[in-house]
Fold these 2 entries.
Entry 1:
Amino acid sequence: MSQVSTAGRGSGTRGKEYLGLFSRYATIIGLLAMILAFSVLSPRAFPTVNNFTNVLNQASLTMIIAAGLTLAVIVGELDLSIGFAASLHGILVTGLIVSNKLPIPVAVIIVLAIGALIGWINGLIVTKIRVNSVIATLGVGTILTGLAFAYSAGVPIVAGVPEAFLQISLGRWLFGIPNNIIIMAVVLGGLWLLVERTSLGQEIQAVGGNPAAARLAGINVDRIKILGFIVSGVCSALTGILLASRLGSGTTSAADSYLMTAFAAVFLGSATLRDGEFHVLGTLVGALIIAFGFNGLNIFGAPTYSQYVLQGAILIIAVGLSSLGRFIAEN
């Protein structure tokens, strides 16, 4: 009887281990399998240096805004204002340059500061007024959309955008690598070091893991949560600036779609290498899966609606894998 029971427990343990391995590595295996499949099906167009560079360049803005969102999610909150904020920031930076004749560096710094301010406001509403982060950031995002229309009168700011501003996104100032890829690498590398290699990062993870225990340990939980929103706000502002530079204009809804893509990348990343934990490296993997998926669909001439179907399916699968990882870790 005891031998049967022991065998059953052993089998159950092995099953749990296999599920754990699957939940941690399924996304990476899926990414490699997708790249291999597309390479076999389209050997001339897909597996080329130019195409891979193009994928990274196109996905760089998603990675930046998703990396900022990751910090907010790590501390246990959600920021639904990021897409709307990025659209506003794109309008503001072009307006400051074109209408107010500000130097490009000054306009960029002002907009980044506004991004930090919006993140700070989100953090205060959530931590001090105790409004649920979903409601708070959705409300702030709606307000930002209204401000974007008020500032631009709903008309894209196109005329008079200087070439130097366009070159921020379109230029290749270092080793022929697109600037957006370099900026993305710096942002993700910096945030990874912050979260994984600093004492502040340990506090960030502690707050996300157990706010009550973190508070008892002497950590200022509200301060850490506000910091998470500020980082998310700055990354949203940077995304809006780079998108306006890429498009050569500021448009009221240009970055709205980044909200869903960023969330898909973050939740898909939480199922990567760790048991349902949000982390910057995982977000990078999640963003790559989405980017290569879209790229493959474009190469094979799939209709536009298929991208929305893929993105929605990825989000559902991502949340499922993340939940599976947490369930295994807790049991």
Note: The chain has a mean pLDDT of 89.
Entry 2:
Amino acid sequence: MRRVITYGTYDLLHYGHIELLRRAKQYGDYLIVALSTDEFNKLKNKKSYYNYEQRKMMLESIRYVDLVIPENGWEQKTEDVKNYNVDTFLMGHDWEGEFDFLKDECEVIYLKRTEGISTTQIKKELYGTD
């Protein structure tokens, strides 16, 4: 069984998120989503509309997602890859090169994001903020 992992906040869930998860699942049989906790989002100076448990529940209801785990900090990625026997680490192309240090542990892929949609764009249009 090929295992894929991806990371994110997944706030204001939209079709760009769904498309990323659908495409991620095509790289393996089992998709793990490491979801940023509320505490980690504070460290990143991000504010989510939905709390961690609400975002987790939404992700768990998506058919492409097999497991949701908490993302508590930047440094946990190497351990997650080892602990969950990950074959492919996958992120959006805006992170290109940032996680190449994982190439010794697994395949690293940066997927092009869905054009015309992002959580940042939605927040700007709705609230005038990021």
Note: The two ends are 38 Å apart (CA to CA).
